[in-house]
C-alpha cells in the first residue's frame, strides 16, 4: 500500500469507529448488553465497571485486525489493510479513553473545560446520563457531540412522550 493509502485507511477506520461506537452504544449497550453497561449509569465507588468490558471488546477488534494484517500470524494470506484498520481502531480507543473516561468522567485527571468543543463533549455526555434506565436518551456517540440545546429539547420531547425517564436536575 502507498503511504497515502495507509494514512487514508487509518483515518477512515478511526472515523468509522465513531459510527460503530454510536450504534453499539445505542443498540447494544442500551439494549441486550445493558447488563454490562448499567453500572456506568449508576453511582458507585468502584475503580472498574462491568462497562469497561466494552473497552476489552474494542481492543479485541483492534488486535484481530492487526493479526489479520500480519504475515507473522497469517502467513501469505495476510491482508495488509488489516494492520492499518487495527491502527485506526487503536487510535480511536485512545481518544475515546482520554475523552470519555478522562475528560467527561474524570477517571484519570480533573479538568472541567469552560468553553469550546471540549465543553460541548462534556455537556453532551452529561445529557446522555440525564436519563434513568436504558430507555430513551441522547448523544450516543463519544467523539462527535451535537449541540447541547438540541439534545435538551430531544430529552424534553422523550420525557413528554413517556419514552425516557429524565432526572429531576434537568427540569
Spatial order of strands in the largest sheet: 1-2
How much strand?
under 5%
Helical segment count: 7
Q: How would you sum up the global shape?
A: elongated
Average pLDDT reading: 93
Radius of gyration: 18 Å
- Uncertain stretches: none
State the share of residues found in helices, binned by percent. 55-70%
Main pleated-sheet profile: 2 strands, antiparallel
**Distance separating the two termini:** 54 Å
Give the number of DSSP strands.
Answer: 2
Structural class: mainly alpha
What's the SSE pattern? HHHHHHEHE
How does the SSE layout of this entry go?
Blueprint: H1 3-32, H2 34-37, H3 53-69, H4 71-74, H5 80-104, H6 116-128, E1 131-132, H7 148-160, E2 165-166
Helix pairs in contact: 1-5, 3-5, 5-6, 6-7
Structural overview:
The longest helix has 30 residues, at 3-32. The mean pLDDT is 93. The chain is elongated. It is mostly helical and 171 residues long. Helix content is 62%, strand content 2%. It contains 7 helices and 2 strands; from the N terminus they run H-H-H-H-H-H-E-H-E. The protein has helices spanning 3-32, 34-37, 53-69, 71-74, 80-104, 116-128, 148-160; strands at residues 131-132, 165-166. Helix 1 (3-32) packs across helix 5, helix 3 packs antiparallel against helix 5 (80-104) and helix 5 (80-104) crosses helix 6 (116-128). The protein has a two-stranded antiparallel sheet.
Amino acid at each position: 500500500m502507498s503511504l497515502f493509502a495507509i494514512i487514508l485507511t487509518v483515518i477512515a477506520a478511526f472515523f468509522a469507529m465513531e459510527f460503530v461506537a454510536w450504534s453499539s452504544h445505542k443498540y447494544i449497550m442500551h439494549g441486550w448488553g445493558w447488563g454490562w453497561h448499567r453500572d456506568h449509569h449508576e453511582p458507585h465507588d468502584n475503580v472498574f465497571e462491568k462497562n469497561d468490558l466494552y473497552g476489552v471488546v474494542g481492543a479485541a477488534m483492534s488486535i484481530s485486525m492487526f493479526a489479520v494484517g500480519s504475515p507473522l500470524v497469517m502467513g501469505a494470506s495476510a491482508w495488509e489493510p488489516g494492520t492499518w484498520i487495527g491502527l485506526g481502531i487503536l487510535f480511536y480507543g485512545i481518544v475515546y479513553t482520554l475523552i470519555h473516561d478522562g475528560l467527561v468522567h474524570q477517571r484519570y485527571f480533573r479538568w472541567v473545560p469552560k468553553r469550546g468543543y471540549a465543553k460541548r463533549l462534556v455537556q453532551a455526555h452529561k445529557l446522555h446520563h440525564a436519563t434513568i434506565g436504558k430507555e430513551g436518551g441522547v448523544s450516543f456517540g463519544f467523539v462527535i457531540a451535537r449541540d447541547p440545546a438540541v439534545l435538551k429539547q430531544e430529552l424534553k420531547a422523550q420525557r413528554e412522550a413517556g419514552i425516557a425517564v429524565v432526572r429531576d436536575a434537568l427540569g
